[in-house]
Specification:
Blueprint: E1 3-5, H1 8-13, E2 20-25, H2 31-44, E3 49-54, H3 74-84, E4 88-90, H4 94-97, H5 117-120, H6 124-139, E5 143-147, H7 151-163, E6 169-173, H8 193-226, H9 228-238, H10 242-253, H11 258-272, E7 279-287, E8 302-311, E9 314-323
Parallel strand pairs: 1-4, 2-3, 2-5, 3-4, 5-6
Antiparallel strand pairs: 7-8, 8-9
The structure holds adenosine-5'-triphosphate, pantoate and beta-alanine (BAL).
Adenosine-5'-triphosphate (ATP) binds near residues 26, 149, 184, 185 and 187.
Length: about 325
């Protein structure tokens, strides 16, 4: 039986058992959320405790965004959270979370919070981190789980926990997708069937980039295995073509190019911009997942290709991890 808790006092009175994991959500729960809850349950075991929070945080919505129309489905959320293994759902009111009205003192996300999502949604990450900090204090978990679908949010929460010494383990959970690739999101409920068809271009673009990267890795591996370009470089250098030799060496030494991989995604998005309804691209960026700095040519290691776009009145985000190979 899943307990529904509405106040901070009730939550504080909740008896603890074993390790406590928290999954924070804005409700309208779907299979992505259920996966976070199941992962939380597996992490703490049957003797541990899983708390799901459901709170649509006004502080992280900008003027003109969808705060008022955001879906609110608490009964179904309690049901789904319970089936996935939650012991309690904490669903406070706005007054309960912000008893003194809008908080004067807030968490500031810093430069990482001003890029990509932060540039499109000014103040969003300050509002998000402020409520996450409050919910961490209120729920006092041993671990907190967040989806990689919101990759920049996850990176900022990790950074906040580290920079401000929050005594909690932050766990990232891979993105759950529909069979056709669309990342699950509460905002998918806004999509008409035609919107949804266009929206599939987000994941298609990310998969095209992943496939391009796989092909690039194979090309470079083949070149290295056959020493084709070094052999050619040697031959060229013997006949005195020093510049051509240097170029040939460079081709073999360089890893896959971020620009080439990014372009594979861009061409899918360009096509979708001509669809009906059209996809309006906000950003497509290849970034370092820890800092959200742009991954330029020569980048090695783990990257994230992140995309945000509007289809009709719905704004969607998605991303995919891409490994550019071991850093030199
Ligand atoms: N498809 C998904 N796979 C894995 N985790 C997800 C997925 N969708 C959401 N989450 C995670 O669930 C948590 C709560 O997210 P939230 O309630 O905002 O859901 P959402 O579907 O992302 O909603 P929205 O459409 O408003 O962005 C976050 O940590 C988020 O990253
Ligand atoms: C982490 C969060 C619950 C804070 O409101 C929200 O940003 C979300 O659902 O991803
Ligand atoms: N899913 C991230 C929270 C937001 O869009 O406001």
């Amino acid at each position: 039986m899943t307990l529904l808790v509405r106040t901070a006092a009730e939550l504080a009175a909740l008896e603890r058992s074993g390790r406590r994991a928290v999954v924070m959500t804005m409700g309208a729960l779907h299979e992505g959320h259920a996966t976070l809850v199941r992962t939380a349950r597996e992490s703490v075991g049957p003797g541990g405790q899983v708390v799901v929070t459901v709170f649509v945080n006004p502080l992280q919505f900008g003027a003109g965004e969808d705060l008022d129309r955001y879906p609110r489905t608490l009964d179904a959320d309690v049901e789904l959270a319970g089936q996935a293994g939650a012991d309690a759902v904490f669903a406070p009111s706005v007054d309960e979370v912000y008893p003194g009205g809008e908080p004067q003192v807030r968490i500031t996300a810093g430069p990482m919070g001003e890029r990509l999502e932060g540039a499109s949604r000014p103040g969003h990450f300050d509002g998000m981190l402020t409520v996450v900090a409050k919910l961490l204090h209120l729920t006092a978990p041993d671990l907190a789980l967040f989806g990689q679908k919101d990759a920049q949010q996850l990176a900022l929460i990790r950074r906040m926990a580290r920079d401000l010494n929050f005594p909690v383990e932050i766990v990232g959970v891979p993105t759950v997708r529909e069979a056709d690739g669309l990342a699950l999101s509460s905002r998918n409920r806004y999509l008409s069937p035609a919107d949804r068809t266009t929206a599939l271009a987000l994941s298609r673009a990310l998969f095209a980039a992943r496939d391009r990267l796989t092909a690039e890795h194979a090309l470079h591996a083949r070149a290295a295995a056959t020493h084709a370009s070094s052999g050619r470089a040697l031959a060229l250098s013997r006949i005195g073509e020093a510049r051509a030799a240097a170029d040939a060496y460079a081709v073999e030494a360089a890893g896959p190019s971020p620009a080439v991989v990014r372009a594979a995604a861009q061409s899918v998005l360009d096509e979708a911009a001509k669809a009906q309804p059209p996809l309006a691209l906000d950003y497509l960026a290849l970034v370092d997942p820890a800092t959200f700095d742009e991954a330029r040519d020569g980048f090695a290691g783990e990257a994230v290709l992140a995309v945000a776009a509007r289809v009709g009145t719905t704004r969607l985000i998605d991303n995919i991890p891409l490994n550019f190979g071991a850093p030199a």
